[in-house]
Write a structure and sequence with these properties.
The chain has 223 residues and is of the alpha/beta class. The protein is 43% helix and 17% strand. It has eight helices and seven strands. The chain has helices at residues 12-23, 36-41, 57-64, 91-118, 139-158, 177-180, 185-190, 194-204; strands at residues 3-7, 28-32, 47-51, 71-76, 122-127, 164-170, 216-218. The protein has a seven-stranded parallel sheet, with helices on both faces. The radius of gyration is 16 Å and the shape is globular.
């Protein structure tokens, strides 16, 4: 069984996804920005930590040369968030969100796809957002996530001939320590646990999801 690449692996959802893949017996390549959290994640057997600026195409291409195992799945969790209505958006915010949300997904998919094709196929899972497909939302963040959803659809069509499936999950509010710091008690009770989302992601990368490609799957429960 080939390994799976998880970007943004050092975050709360990333930790849950890595743990779920390891529980399923998959080796994980954890990609994220350099730091203690990534270093700690790469300590156990079966997890290879690779540091990179995922919003930079050249850095991603170089990072993929340091992946020590064959991989046939990519989970793109890397991204950022910034609140703000139309009047709040400035060049710095827009550039940061597009590079972290859309750019990181585009560059890692671009690097991964030929490797997966050479192995006979694979799976890519992107992370959009509930706000990418409807409802009120911060303008720049929701727009960048909407682009990720559209990218998912385009890649599903383009890579179909290479037997690479591409699907998106659409979270809303995830129950993380950072989010708990601002959530009301009511919202905290409805927020979705990272482990629950991780199970859907692992399923989408597995053989039982073979018929599914081009889907945008809600994982937001009541949040």
């Amino acid at each position: 069984m080939n390994a799976v690449i998880v970007t943004g692996a050092a975050g709360a959802l990333g930790h849950a996804v890595v743990a779920e893949f390891r529980a399923a017996g998959r080796v994980v390549v954890a990609l994220d920005r350099p730091g203690d959290r990534l270093d700690a994640l790469g300590t156990p057997d079966g997890v290879h930590a690779v540091a990179a600026d995922l919003s930079d195409r050249a850095a991603v291409q170089e990072a993929f040369t340091r992946i020590p195992v064959d991989c046939d799945a990519l989970v793109g969790l890397a991204g950022g968030f910034s609140p703000g209505a139309l009047s709040d958006v400035d060049e710095e915010t827009l550039d940061s969100l597009w590079r972290s949300n859309f750019g990181s997904m585009l560059w890692t998919a671009q690097a991964a796809a030929p490797r997966f094709a050479a192995l006979g196929g694979g799976a890519i899972v992107t992370v959009g957002s509930k706000t990418a497909v409807g409802g009120p939302a911060p303008v720049a963040h929701a727009t960048s996530k909407a682009a990720v959803v559209r990218l998912t659809q385009l890649l599903a069509e383009e890579l179909r001939a290479d037997r690479i499936r591409v699907n998106a999950v659409l979270p809303s509010v995830i129950d993380t320590p950072a989010n708990r710091s601002w959530m009301s008690d009511d919202l905290a009770a409805r927020a979705v646990a990272p482990a629950a989302i991780a199970k859907v992601i692992v399923f989408l990368c597995g053989p039982d999801a073979a018929p599914i490609s081009g889907a945008a799957i809600p994982v937001y429960g009541d949040a």
